[in-house]
Amino acid sequence: RDRKPKTKELNITSLIDILTILLVFMIKNVSMDSTQKDVPDGMLLPSTVSKSELIENGKVVIIKLFAAKQNEAGERIESKILVGKDNLFLGSLEDISVNAKKKQELQGYLRIEAEQTRNRDGVPCIMIQADKNVKCGYITQLIKIGADASFSHIYFSSIKASDKEALLGTAAGS
Predict the structure, then answer these.
(1) CA distance linking residue 3 with residue 34, whole number of Å
(2) Residue 154: its H or E element
(3) Closest residue by Cα to residue 153 from 23, 53, 8
(4) For an engineered disulfide with 65, which of 49, 120, 130, 154 has Cβ 3.0 to 4.6 Å away?
(5) Phi and psi angles of residue 65, each rounded to the nearest 5 degrees, phi first
(6) pTM score, two decimals?
(7) Kind of pairing, strands 125-130 and 60-66?
(8) Burial category of 117 from C-beta neighbours within 10 Å (exposed 0-12, middle 13-18, buried 19 and up)
């Protein structure tokens, strides 16, 4: 007599159906929306404001920073700091670093602007527009000067561009 053990075949069709249904429900109920993340108490997340909104309200002092560069003739063009709507020239980036008088001049100008904004029942804001070649140290120093001049809101202007490689200064394929 040959006794072969009887093996039962395992039918996993129904198991796959159940797992598929469970997977669908899990995907439907899990949200990857970043606005639903829990923000810890006391953490203030950065906000964005359009330039036109700030300018229309008259609450912003625009500071433009240009890095030193060479023109086509090979001549060196000094860096410069332009302040306000009228592009008032306040010196070079290097002046703010080494010349205490220029630093105090910029800080004095910003204090006057902050006081005028407060008198109009506004919150004083600085918007920094910097050339992409400006060193971070200059921007950090400018932030410190603005904070010392009692500006609590400091914004950075950015460019919205579709061509990321052109914006970052990289060539395709390199």
Answers:
(1) 63
(2) strand 153-156
(3) 53
(4) 130
(5) -115, 125
(6) 0.61
(7) parallel
(8) buried
Q: Which residue has the tokens 């036109």?
A: 52
Q: What 3-state class would DSSP assign to 121? A: coil
Query: What tokens does 54 get?
Result: 């700030």
Geometric angle at alpha carbon 73, from 71 and 79, rounded to 5°: 30
- 163 contact partners, CB below 8 Å, separation of at least 6: none
Which pLDDT tens digit goes with each residue over 86-120?
A: 888 888 888 888 888 988 888 998 899 888 888 87
The number of angstroms, rounded, from the C-alpha of 4 to the middle of its chain's C-alpha atoms is 74
Run of H or E residues at 98: helix 93-98
How far apart, in whole angstroms, are the C-alpha atoms of residue 161 and residue 174?
Answer: 20
The pLDDT tens digits of the residues spanning 21-36 come to: 999 888 877 765 555 5
Cα torsion through 107, 113, 115, 120, rounded to 10: -170
Contact 96, 81 (CB under 8 A): yes
CA distance linking residue 90 with residue 105, whole number of Å: 8
First to last CA, the chain: 78
Helices marked H in 12-83: 13-29, 51-57
Residue length of the chain: 174
Helices 100-119 and 136-148 sit at what angle, rounded to 10 degrees?
Answer: 50
Helices (H), strands (E): how many in the chain? 6, 7
